[in-house]
Structure formats: structure tokens, C-alpha cells
Amino acid sequence: MDQNQRQELDRETDFDVIIVGAGFAGLYMLHRLRGLGLNARVYEAGENVGGTWYWNRYPGARCDAESLAYSFSFSPELEQEWEWSERYATQPEILRYAEHVADRFDLRRDIRFERTVTAARFDEATRLWTVETEQGDRARARICIMATGCLSVPQRPDIPGLDDFQGNLYQASLWPHEGVDFTGQRVGVIGTGSSAIQAIPVIAVQAGQLTVFQRTPNFSVPAVNSKLDPEWVAQFKAHYREHRDNHRHGLGQGFGDLEIEPHPPAPAAETGAELTDAELEQALEEYWAKGGARFMGAVTDSLSNEETNRLFADFVRKKIRATVKDPEVAEALCPSDHPIGTKRICVDTGYYETYNRDNVSLVNLRKTPIERVTANGIQTSDAHYELDTLVLATGFDAMTGALLRMDIRGVGGMALAEKWAAGPRSYLGIGIAGFPNLFTITGPGSPSVLSNMLVSIEQHVDWMIDCIRYMEDEGLALVEPEPDAEDAWVDHVNEVANGTLFPKGGSWYLGANVAGKPRVFMPYAAGVGAYREVCDRVAENGYEGFRFSA
Ligand code: NAP
Description:
By secondary structure, the chain is α/β, with parallel strands linked by helices. It has a domain of 296 residues: 3-Layer(bba) Sandwich (FAD/NAD(P)-binding domain). The chain has 17 helices and 21 strands. Strands 1, 2, 3, 4, 5, 6, 17, 18 and 19 form a nine-stranded mixed sheet that branches. It has a five-stranded parallel sheet with strand order 7-16-8-9-12, covered by helices on one side. Helix 2 runs parallel beside helix 15, helix 10 runs antiparallel to helix 11 and helix 15 runs parallel beside helix 17. It starts with a helix and ends with a strand. The structure holds NADP nicotinamide-adenine-dinucleotide phosphate (NAP). NADP nicotinamide-adenine-dinucleotide phosphate binds next to helix 6.
């Protein structure tokens, strides 16, 4: 009997809180709600916990944040006892960690797996949320918490003939649990974002022939991944509290650094504009050698000053040309259509080197676009590529996708889809005017996808728990943002984004990868420390900008 059969449907059941999603956000929220003595139900579409790490099992999938930072800090025992094996953990290791957290804190008994939430509607008369799942659950709660993740709705490309393909068709973010053996196969990959850039080097080693279909090249920096030395880990962990403090309050996005001895968070000393070209080049070499996405932090103005940004981009293009032997392929791999870092920078292991393999070729779709997928391959404007297997690594309907595919309705039956028709509007990325007692963990308008997600998840959950405790103590039934506060926050989020180069990126941060999606820069770009200060101040001032009713 599988887990789903064991779990009876919820019918007209009442809870204090319903949480949607059992990724890291849902797990930690459930744990904290239990601490408040509240009774919570979690609905999760997958068969297991882990969220993004449950679904994204493509070859080479691993985190681009360092393991010792991309992990929960709420339990000193957990952080001491869990041993990460690599600087950047693989997907299987992170999934094991999520499972360990669920078991260690006995969370599974309140989670219903294989339940896809389709609707959450607020009823003004009862002041309750009713949540429905595709499988037939119908439950009510005072509070509804969306822990639905930011990159959880895969984008299937609208390429003619895709359904005609007779070979094996896989999507990176919906990878078969049993894995895929590419041995001897002719494999095609569509997409060259973070997922593809991790998968391509691994598939290339196994496949007979790999053809990468690239529309837009991305900037990628080497991960410089390695096994973790237990001695180094022990020393780092001896300072864990200070490191965690730095993640939370630092000027950046909560990724911390690799020094064993923690030091107060400090910005890189200079802006690029203050350095000579030779000094900047040296700083970039140092950061390139350290590895990872902190490359963009080599100076402070890499994402705000166009000239500094251009020097960063030139540096990476030089590295690509030095690595890839075929000059035509190297040129095709050099991004030129967006400032570096304004699309999420990719972190790779041997990506560019892979194009030097005899069994790997690149098709530049800018020159020869795909006309259609055929029964046995891909037809571009100048050739037909025969394929046994096609892998789609074509991204997600990010940040709002998971929320908007549910029928979420607030006061007066207002649909969230209607309210957000011109782009997401939220106060602090936490609450939405007109949707009382609805919280969004790492919602649009918060640092979210720009940040170390574990840091942002813990911050949001802790803030929400304090707010719920305040309501319990004060006998308050409902909380929702004031429309004015929400408007001011949306303006502020835009203002901060407009002070950076991010809006020039044409990225999924802006919704630019989804046809018809409003172009709004969705995350808050001021950094996790500054954002935390705002949230703390709001709470200290009696939840300024929120209104409560008894
Ligand atoms: P993505 O960055 O959105 O990349 C999607 C790719 O598919 C792009 O190269 C895109 O090309 C291409 N594409 C989409 N539709 C296409 C079409 N019709 N024809 C040809 N190409 C098409 O998606 P992703 O790689 O899944 O990454 C999304 C985000 O997930 C990342 O930015 C990151 O935040 C997260 N992620 C993180 C990790 C990690 O932690 N290591 C790993 C994977 C993903 P265009 O640019 O031309 O549209």
C-alpha cells in the first residue's frame, strides 16, 4: 500500500493553519507552528518532502550555494550532527537532508503527500480559508500559508511538433526517479540556463552524441567544487553562530564566505570604478579562482555600474574564449545580450570544457532556429538532427506561477490572478491586501530568489510565527496589509530594482521567459540584511502597515 492510499482524504476538516508545500519552507513552518501549539496540515504534491530537491533530479543537479550556508540554522543540534560531504551538495544529498529534517522533527504525520492544492478561498462570514486539493480533500483553517516555492512550475516550450517526438522526452525539473541511462544515445538538450549547464557536462560523458540547442548563452562561473575536509568543517562549525549571524545580517544575499574565522560582514573594499583595470582584473582572477556566484561580489558596483559590469562580462568572455578550442563555438557561447548577473549567473563544473569533446556539438538557434520537433529529432532552419532522447531544460514560471495556478480568492471573492493581472503586489512579500491571514513564504517583493533561500525561508517563517503569536496573545483574528502600505512597498521594490542593472536582464526575475507574463522585477534587491531590518522595524512598530481585526 502506498503512502497515498494510507492517508485518508480530509473532508470538511478544520485546522488552525494549512500550509501548501513540504519543501524547506513548509517543513520549517510546520515545525514552528507546532511550537506555538497550533494544529497544522501540510498538503504536498510530491510523494515526499524536499520541494525543488524532490523534483529536480536531472544529472548533475546540485546547489549553487555552499552546503554549510544552504542549510537550516534553527537547530544547533541539527547543524552540528548533519555532515555535508561536498562544498556544493548534490541533489540526492540535499533530498536526504530534507528527509532527515522531516524525520528528526517528526513532521510527516501532519503532511499529506500527493495532494495538489487547486483552490484556497477566504470566507468572510466564517473568517476561514477553505483549501481544496485535486485529489478531493477539502479542509478549513484560520490561516493559510503558501510555501509553494519560487521555481516550482516547469515551463514546457511551445515548440511545434514536440508531442510528435517518438524518442525519450524528459524535462529537467520532472526527472524520472529511477534515473536515465544515456549510454550510446544521441541526446539533444534544449536550454542553456543553470539546469542545462549542470546537466550537459554529465550527460556528455555518457551519451554517444550530445547536441545542445542554444537560443541565448548565459554567463557561467566555475563552482570549484570539492569534497569537504572534516577538519575544516569542524572548525567552521565551531563558529557556526557567528557565521549564521553574518548570513542573516550581511550586506549581500546571505551566502556568507568561506573563511573559518568569521568576521563582521563587510562589503568588498572598492567599487570597480575606484580600481584601475589591472586591479579589477586581479580581483576578478581571485574571485574566479575561489569559485561560485560570489564572483559578482568582487567589487560592490558590479550590478549597478554599467562600465564595471562590462569589465566583468569581458573577463568571463575572455575565459570562455580561452577554454573553448573552436573559435566559432566559443563566440556562440559568449553572452552579449544582457549585463552579467542580471540573469541568474550559472555555476558549473566543466561546462565550457565540455564543448571540446568530440561527441558534443552546439547548435546556435539564433542563426538556425528550430522549425519543429519531428518524430525522430529536431529540424532547424538548416539541418535535421536525429535524436534518441530529448531533454528540456527550459525553465520555470517563476515566483508567481505556483500561486496563480491555484484559485486563490480573498475578500469579496477577489481572485489573486485578477489582483496580480499587471504583476504581483504584496507588502514585504509576506502578505497581500485583500487576502487576510494569507502568508507567502519568500513571496514576490522579498529577497527570495536573489538570496540564500534557507536564510530567507527561516527569516520569513520566524517573522510570521511572531506575528501569529502576537495575534494569539492579543486575541486578534485577522491580519492583512493596508493597501497604502502595499502600494508604497511595491514602489520601493521597483525603485530599488531601478537603481540596479537587473531590469535590463530580460530574465525570469522579470517574468520575461513566459509569454504574456507582465514584466515586473519581482524580488527585492536591497539584500537580506537591509530587508530583515525593515521587517523587524515593522514588527517593532506594532506591525506597521498591517491591519488587524479582533
Ligand atoms: P532558465 O534559466 O530559465 O533557462 C531556460 C533555458 O531554456 C534558457 O536557456 C532558455 O533560452 C531556454 N529556452 C526556453 N524556451 C526555449 C525554446 N522555446 N527554445 C529554445 N530554448 C528555450 O531555467 P533553468 O536552467 O531551469 O534555471 C532556472 C533557475 O532555477 C536558475 O536561474 C536558478 O535560480 C535555479 N536553478 C538553480 C540551480 C542551482 O542551484 N544550481 C540549478 C538549476 C536551476 P532563452 O534564454 O533564450 O529563453
